[in-house]
Amino acid sequence: MSFIQYQDGPLNKYLTISENKMLVFGREIHCDFQMTLDPLISREHFGIEKDDNGRMSVIDLGSTNGTFLNDKRLENDIVPLHDGDNIRAGSQNFIYYEQMPSRKGTQEIFDEISDSVNQGKGFKTMMHEILGDKIPDKRS
Hints:
2 domains, 16% helix, alpha+beta, 2 helices, 5-stranded mixed beta sheet
């Protein structure tokens, strides 16, 4: 089963790709993945479907601003996807995965936190490593 990873705010989310029909990305309400807030997205921008050889492939659906696969603009071709390929439409990036990427389990996360504490890192340092500059500095 194949997946598309996309950003929703700070979170990575995953969308399962159907093996039986084209998954359509665009602005319209009938699209499988709607991108209504991006002015660079066409009504039906691009699609992902299984090609005649049984591989997942991407096709631009006549979008005005183009669909890019690994930074190369797609023409009217049906292009096979490979694990880790990057698809860009408007300001949205998608990563294609042939299988769901493994995620860290709770125990692995606790082990990493424990290792950080044992290395002498404080709470604020660990939070800045995790969240970056999203933590306001109360000293300002």
